[in-house]
Amino acid sequence: MAGTSRGSTRSRASKSSAENAPILSPPNPKLRKDKTRNNSLIRIFNVNLKFLLGFGIISFVIALFFIYPIVNPMEKPQKPRVITPLPAPKLTDLPMFEGEHRESLYWGTYRPQVYFGVRARTPQSLVAGLMWIGVKDGRYFMRHVCQDSDELKQYGWTSHNGRDYGHQVLTEQTMSLTTSFLKSKGHGSGYGGDWAVRIGVQSNESIPDDEMLNTAHLFFYMADEGGKSFNLGRGVLDIHDDSVLASGSRSDTGDWQLHLLSEDVSQVHYSGFKTPHIHNLSDLVQPNLAVQARKFGHLLLSDSSDDSPNILVFQISARIPFRADIVFLSGTNTRDSRVEERLSRLTGISLTSLLSEKQKEFDDKFKKCFSLSDELGLESVSVGKVALGNMLGGIGYFFGQSKILLPSTSTVRYFSFGSLLF
Fold first, then answer.
1. Structure letter (DSSP) for residue 241
2. What residue stretches are annotated with the Glycosyl hydrolase family 63 C-terminal domain (predicted)?
3. Cis amide leading into 321 (omega within 30)
4. CB 260 within 8 Å of CB 316
5. I need a labelling partner for 1 at 20 to 30 A (CA). Which of 16, 72, 154, 283 fits?
6. Burial class (CB within 10 angstroms; exposed 0-12, middle 13-18, buried 19+) of 259
7. pLDDT at 55
8. pLDDT single digits (tens) 200-218
9. Rounded distance, CA 299 to CA 39, Å?
10. Looking at residues 326-351, what average pLDDT do you find?
11. What whole-number distance in Å separates Cα of residue 189 and Cα of residue 208?
12. pTM value?
């Protein structure tokens, strides 16, 4: 009985526990579907919020990009007035500066950077100039470009009318050079006419019997900036038999010839070079002389030339004192060119007379223009003539492109323009 009673009690306890336990209802499919729908709406809402935020930012930036220039218009950079070209014709293109006026100024001493130089007022011109060897402290130095290190006692134009005449004096340590420039428009001349240069060399003081000090070496050259080649004349072989040093042809002047006449010069040496640049002529001549000096012990050019040279340098050496006339004749290919007549007029006694006339005209015009009184001293008048002569003789001709660096506050950093200055 006891066993039965114990088993009945356990059975009743189990039944009582089962009766008191909570009853779990079966899952409701409708509630599960509603919960899934709510979660999906939250996720979609989160995605749409990010998309809308990004789209709004991009739209704002685009709108700002288009609206800002309208609200705050940007000013276009303007060139400062000081460097803005005047919208008008150049003075040289006006009718009053054309024709005979322009032709009368075509050739001139428009190379103020060298001691003596001649060129035309046109790009890619024929260029002529003078170099010489100076002696200082027993050493040779080449003179060509004006520089203080040459220590010349004096150089500059003592008179120049700015058109067809000029005279200058160059005083070295032991000698003095004079150059006289004259232009002439004769019958048969080409465009721009002809011109002549008289070079004189004198001793400054009594010179001992020294070959270095008693002999002067001059170098007269012709160069073509456009690279056109020259023909070597027969005058380089015998200056007394034929005076032509060089010849060539150009579209502006026609055929031309360069002549040398001098009773004091017995021989001429030369060298020809082919180069696109003419700013380094001294650098071409000096090595040539150095090689000859090492080989033969004389300062003489090599009497050789590159093929189709556009630069010819002629060495004129003679004992001091001496004088030489160099003449450029244009238009020598015409039937009525009268080369001999024009050459005779620009050399010798005839040239001496023409130079004297031009000097007198300069002196008379200077006195008339400035109303000089007789009380004014000769020294003051000479200073005035030198000042005027150097101003007119120092006029140069340049062409090309120039760049101007503007202030840092300017929106335009560089401004380039073409220029013709003379």
1. T
2. 347-409
3. yes
4. yes
5. 16
6. buried
7. 76
8. 999 887 666 666 678 899 9
9. 107
10. 92
11. 46
12. 0.76
Residue 186, both tokens: 């004769």
| Number of Cβ atoms within 10 Å of the Cβ of 166 | 25
Judging by DSSP bridges, how do beta strands 304-305 and 268-273 pair with one another? parallel
List, in sequence order, the alpha helices (H) in 160-297. Answer: 211-214, 281-296
Give the chain's radius of gyration (CA, Å): 46
Measured over the CA atoms of residue 274, residue 275, residue 278 and residue 280, the dihedral's sign is negative
Give the domain ranges of the chain: 112-394
Alpha carbon 131 to chain centroid distance? Answer: 21
What kind of fold does domain 112-394 have according to CATH? Beta-galactosidase; Chain A, domain 5 (2.70.98)
Cβ atoms within 10 Å, residue 170? 22
* DSSP reduced 3-state for 70: helix
Residue 182 CB-half CA count within 13 A: 26
Bridge partners of residue 145, in order along the sequence: 114
DSSP string for 375-407:
TS-HHHHHHHHHHHHHHHHT---EEEEEEEEPP
> Distance between the two ends of the chain, CA-based, in angstroms?
148
